[in-house]
Amino acid sequence: MGKKFMAIDRKLLDVLCCPVTKQPIRSIKRNELKTLNERISAGEVHYQDGNTVEIPLEEGLITANEERVYRIDDGIPVMLEERAINLRAAGLK
Questions:
Q1: Half-sphere exposure of 90 (CA within 13 A, CB side)
Q2: Cα gap 84→71, rounded to integer Å
Q3: Which structural domain range is residue 61 located in?
Q4: Backbone torsions φ then ψ of 71, nearest 5 degrees
Q5: More confidently predicted of 77 and 6
Q6: Whole-number Å distance between alpha carbons of 6 and 8
Q7: Is 82 inside any structural domain?
Q8: Counts of helices then strands in the chain (DSSP H, E)
């Protein structure tokens, strides 16, 4: 059985934005998450700060232009610029 997504409060999504581009964000879709996690498992994905993403995401938030993903750990969005995952750099955009 797959992991269940925790619902992110809609009001929270309405006030959060990308700290880099100020773009709105949305919850990442399951198929997007699956593709991203496959690349993470292959060691091909890095955070903005250059460190390799070693732990697959259970949930995430993606910018409106679909270029950056922010992980959600234990129901808490990690909205730090250096912890953004740049999908273009990962070859996913």
A1: 29
A2: 8
A3: 10-86
A4: -75, 155
A5: 77
A6: 6
A7: yes
A8: 2, 5
Q: Judge if pTM exceeds 0.70.
A: yes
DSSP state of 18: -
Report if residue 36 sits inside a domain: yes
Let me know if residue 93 belongs to a domain: no
Residue located via tokens 């259970």: 58
> Which residue reads 């409106």 in tokens?
64
Positive or negative, the CA dihedral 16, 80, 34, 88 is positive
For residue range 67-77, list pLDDT tens digits in order: 999 999 998 99
Residue type, 90: A
Q: Cα dist. 5→8, 13, 25, 61, 81 in Å? A: 9, 15, 16, 12, 23
Q: How many domains does the chain fold into?
A: 1
pLDDT at 10 over 80: no
- Report the distance separating Cα 57 and Cα 69, nearest Å: 10
Instruction: Specify if 75 maps to a domain.
Output: yes
**Distance separating alpha carbons of residues 85 and 74, to the nearest angstrom:** 18
